[in-house]
């Protein structure tokens, strides 16, 4: 049993998971400390509010409100759970986008721009194709594939300049982000897709449900009633599994990772490094575009078309999701849900206490900051393990009470002139086996030559 635990501890995956858990726990602890400081220094709050705030910070997803006496109540909250899964859908896909690029040695900070391009094409197809003549299910598929393709094409741009001009992909991604923001604004400015039905919504694009196009619920609305959840979370999980299969079980995935490990060595081995760099960024961009498509095809979300002043935070949030998951596609599903849960926690803290949602933002910020140091935390685990092993070996090698290590009694060395038994080193020459007559004619195998 101990040997199995030791082998499990020595695995890199175990250390990665522990490093991520340590980052999360420290972030939650820092949030609790901040709640304590704010509550104790503010006369209008007090110790009771501190306890409520800390409970919500850790269990806000299961908060069900307050009872008649004003105390917090906890249990299964279908609205919170459903909304968490709904918000996790685009986070999972943008996290996959960043993770795939990480696996291939690239840093895809262009996910916001790819997300915007996927959003624009998805909405234009979903709202532009007449649902009177084309089945809405077919429109949904066309819009989803169109948004994914738009993100992939936009992701190709940094990949091309990286592969053929050796321009850093981070710089190229930053430029394409703002080009996308202005391009999407120009595409929607003056278009027929703006919401002109509701007078206060002229800065928004119609929901896809305006054309009868929305993602199927797949029965999830029965499990999580009154929430925004739909079948998009199932699609996101399936895509995550497919990405894991691609990166871990296929030749293409091996080639992509080989190019990321050492581009020149991969080329020497016969791998087309330029093609794989472009392909890697295209896959990453397609995943970001797919995240946008699933989010806006839900039928209950609106897109603010005047985006030139800002970039969608969902694209940047994919970075900590990928970091916490150590770029593991399956791990991204769990870290995406966790980051989405923190958003729900922030809402619960705001709605049920005198604290504001920025407490959750601080927790997220600390976790994101520590996730960047997950490698350092892993190194600390390895160092402590190595140090402990060295101490155990040193203790095992120390002789004591006639013992050497874990062996039997140690034989004391005999002086050269001491009498020896059984032909030992101190025996007369004629009694030594090696000096027996004919020994010189005996070969190494003990046979006469």
Count of DSSP E strands? 4
Structural class: mainly alpha
Shape: globular
CATH topology of the domain at 79-341: ABC transporter involved in vitamin B12 uptake, BtuC
Quickly name the level 1 CATH class of the domain at 79-341. Answer: Mainly Alpha
Strand content: under 5%
CATH arch. level architecture of the domain at 79-341: Orthogonal Bundle
Measure the end-to-end span. Answer: 54 Å
Main sheet record: 2 strands, antiparallel
Radius of gyration: 32 Å
In sequence order, what are the helices and strands, one letter per element?
Answer: HHHEEHHHHEHHHHHEHHHH
Mean pLDDT: 82
Count up the helices.
16
Ranges where pLDDT stays below 50 over 5 or more residues in a row are 402-412, 418-449
What can you tell me about this protein's structure?
The structure is a single chain. This protein is an all-alpha fold. The protein has a domain at 79-341: Orthogonal Bundle (ABC transporter involved in vitamin B12 uptake, BtuC). 63% of the residues lie in helices and 2% in strands. The chain is built from 16 helices and 4 strands. It has helices at residues 2-10, 12-41, 47-59, 78-103, 111-128, 136-165, 169-188, 220-223, 232-249, 251-261, 263-268, 273-296, 313-324, 329-352, 358-371, 374-397, and strands spanning 63-66, 72-74, 204-205, 303-304. The strands form 2 sheets. It has a two-stranded antiparallel ribbon with strand order 1-2. Strands 3-4 form a two-stranded antiparallel ribbon. Strand 1 and strand 2 form a beta hairpin. The protein is globular, with a radius of gyration of 32 Å. Mean pLDDT is 82; it is low at 402-412 and 418-449.
